[in-house]
Amino acid sequence: MRIDVVSIFPTIFDALEVSLLGKARQSGLLDVAVHDLRDYTHDRHRTVDDTPYGGGAGMVMKPEPWGEALDDIVGGAAERPVIVFPSPAGERFTQSIARELSAAPHLVFGCGRYEGIDERVFDYAAELGDVRLLSLGDYVLNGGEVAVMAMVEAIGRLVPGVVGNPESLVEESHEDGLLEYPSFTKPAVWREREVPPILLSGNHGAVASWRREQQIERTRLRRPDLLAD
Ligand code: JFE
């Protein structure tokens, strides 16, 4: 999978090297390229923002550098990419969307800053690829970078071969619509706290039922919204 990221803070993405994705990048399973939006400006100050038409607080990202960046990145590409813009006004990014995007051969992420990007950029991007505006959750970040880091990690680990054991991907939280069951390791007693004895029983059927019960009860307590249907 090819991933292009456009940002005015490209070094933020150095952190991707350290996560589990670093190995996948070395092996060529994930080919990630980060682009500095300011490289697509032409003025002495490498300006990427301007005041909003209609007035209001803050600055808006100018369309011209975005147009040049998208032309450069998508222009030579083989397939029509999925172009993601993180936005607090976007559709919620879920495990199901991460699964869907993990099947795309080419993803382009545009990281906004300031109060956001000139709306015409989304319209232009839709001529080059399938545009998705995606929100990590109902809180406001200072820009798209942290959201893209989370999305690249969530999507990248679903690309076949990136995570060692594919079973661990299916078992985990959100793939079956329930929260995970609690996990324990040695020692069996730690600071007077015992591991639930059923996990030491060797009865695999009983362990499986207990874990499923735990998943349902935790989901009911912490995330009743997931049980609504
Ligand atoms: C940008 C900003 C003021 C946005 C109404 C680009 N889930 C999520 N939260 N926040 C973002 C995503 C996000 C994504 C991209 C962003 C926030 N900002 C900051 C400031 C109003 C805004 O939108 C700029």
From TrEMBL:
<keyword id="KW-0963">Cytoplasm</keyword>
<dbReference type="GO" id="GO:0052906">
    <property type="term" value="F:tRNA (guanine(37)-N1)-methyltransferase activity"/>
</dbReference>
<dbReference type="InterPro" id="IPR029028">
    <property type="entry name" value="Alpha/beta_knot_MTases"/>
</dbReference>
<dbReference type="InterPro" id="IPR002649">
    <property type="entry name" value="tRNA_m1G_MeTrfase_TrmD"/>
</dbReference>
<keyword id="KW-0489">Methyltransferase</keyword>
<keyword id="KW-0808">Transferase</keyword>
<dbReference type="GO" id="GO:0002939">
    <property type="term" value="P:tRNA N1-guanine methylation"/>
</dbReference>
<feature type="domain" description="tRNA methyltransferase TRMD/TRM10-type">
    <location>
        <begin position="1"/>
        <end position="228"/>
    </location>
</feature>
<dbReference type="Pfam" id="PF01746">
    <property type="entry name" value="tRNA_m1G_MT"/>
</dbReference>
<protein>
    <recommendedName>
        <fullName>tRNA (guanine-N(1)-)-methyltransferase</fullName>
        <ecNumber>2.1.1.228</ecNumber>
    </recommendedName>
</protein>
<comment type="subunit">
    <text>Homodimer.</text>
</comment>
<dbReference type="InterPro" id="IPR016009">
    <property type="entry name" value="tRNA_MeTrfase_TRMD/TRM10"/>
</dbReference>
<feature type="binding site">
    <location>
        <position position="112"/>
    </location>
    <ligand>
        <name>S-adenosyl-L-methionine</name>
    </ligand>
</feature>
<keyword id="KW-0949">S-adenosyl-L-methionine</keyword>
<keyword id="KW-0819">tRNA processing</keyword>
<comment type="similarity">
    <text>Belongs to the RNA methyltransferase TrmD family.</text>
</comment>
<dbReference type="GO" id="GO:0005829">
    <property type="term" value="C:cytosol"/>
</dbReference>
<feature type="binding site">
    <location>
        <begin position="136"/>
        <end position="141"/>
    </location>
    <ligand>
        <name>S-adenosyl-L-methionine</name>
    </ligand>
</feature>
<dbReference type="InterPro" id="IPR029026">
    <property type="entry name" value="tRNA_m1G_MTases_N"/>
</dbReference>
<dbReference type="InterPro" id="IPR023148">
    <property type="entry name" value="tRNA_m1G_MeTrfase_C_sf"/>
</dbReference>
<comment type="function">
    <text>Specifically methylates guanosine-37 in various tRNAs.</text>
</comment>
